[in-house]
Structure prediction request, 130 residues.
Amino acid sequence: MRQYLIKRICNVMKVMDKAKGPFTPTTTTILDVNKSHASHYIARWNGGEKYQVTRAWQDQHVVDVRNNTCTCRKWELIGIPCKHVIATLYEMTKNSEDVGDIYRWFNKVYWLDTWKNAYSYKAYKEEEEK
Prediction:
């Protein structure tokens, strides 16, 4: 078990050293895909903190930016803004609303700093007491 942990920590550290940006590599890939899909959606404000996000073929969802929810449920389940949320953030920015940095809409578990912190511990064998 210890050997597995040592290997795992070393592999993750190598990946972290190559990572660019504030997120883990997989998260960055998911964000890029969601951004490209978001360009096909239209978000319209429907009152309060909610937006109706639509695309052709009856694909419709409601994004609630106050409660960080989307009716597709991906945002709540994985903590990464889905394509509907990103389309909403684009619309909010177009209307001069302060959405801040897109990174603030992510769960902290996907931040590279969180990853580095989690993998900062080393698996080594304690010396036996004499």
Summary: The longest strand covers residues 50-55. The radius of gyration is 20 Å.
